[in-house]
Write a structure and sequence with these properties.
CATH class of the domain at 58-150: Mainly Alpha
Keywords: DNA-binding, Homeobox, Nucleus, Transcription, Transcription regulation
Number of strands: 0
Pfam family, one: HALZ
Main location: nucleus
Order of helices and strands: HHHHH
CATH superfamily of the domain at 58-150: Homeodomain-like
Helix content: 55-70%
GO molecular function: DNA-binding transcription factor activity, RNA polymerase II-specific; sequence-specific DNA binding
Oligomer: single chain
Shape: elongated
Distance between the termini: 102 Å
Radius of gyration: 42 Å
CATH architecture of the domain at 58-150: Orthogonal Bundle
CATH topology of the domain at 58-150: Arc Repressor Mutant, subunit A
Strand content: under 5%
Family: Belongs to the HD-ZIP homeobox family. Class I subfamily.
């Protein structure tokens, strides 16, 4: 593929005489983001043609929204019926449904993200609280062990040793008999 140099000449995008707009040819960023209508796709014209994009009426949008709520997918028969009822081209109905599905998906993702984020935040707070509790308990254990160690040292010095006798269970006593001195 050949790279363009600054010395290469480019063909003008705009027909002569239409040098207005952000890109110098009557095309605005919002025009580039909106879907194409059949009028915009005329041969040789495209987005740069002089025809204006037609917006849907409020009634058409309401009817399309109502149909979208019933089923967000569009079968060819339903598309043709809607287009005929609303006075639109089937392609306009198809594009509207495609764009509406994209908006619906975005809203669904945003809603799911919000729910997951709030759940994560709650779990994070619980985790941090449990971590602080764990650290406090470990500190208490350490403190108690040191006290126990000090107490054991003090007990060893102050008390005389006591003779430890072996522990004998009752079953062992029964085997040895009642006169045994264990």
């Amino acid at each position: 593929m050949k790279r363009l140099n600054s010395s290469d000449s480019l063909l003008p995008i705009c027909p002569s005489g239409e040098e207005t707009g952000v890109y110098g040819c009557g095309v605005y960023p919002s025009d580039m983001m909106d879907p194409l209508d059949d009028d915009d796709c005329s041969v040789g014209g495209g987005l740069l043609g002089s025809s204006k994009k037609r917006r849907l009426s409020l009634e058409q949008v309401k009817a399309l929204e109502k149909n979208f709520e019933v089923e967000n997918k569009l079968e060819p028969e339903r598309k043709a019926r809607l287009a005929h009822e609303l006075g639109l081209q089937p392609r306009q109905v198809a594009v509207w449904f495609q764009n509406r599905r994209a908006r619906w998906k975005t809203k669904t993702l945003e809603r799911d993200y919000g729910a997951l984020k709030s759940s994560y935040d709650a779990l994070r707070v619980d985790y941090d609280s449990l971590l602080r509790d764990k650290e406090a308990l470990l500190a208490q254990i350490k403190e108690l062990k040191t006290k126990l160690g000090e107490a054991a040292e003090t007990d060893d010095m102050s008390f005389t040793s006591v003779k430890e006798e072996p522990v004998v269970s009752e079953s062992d006593n029964a085997k040895l008999g009642p006169n045994s001195d264990i």
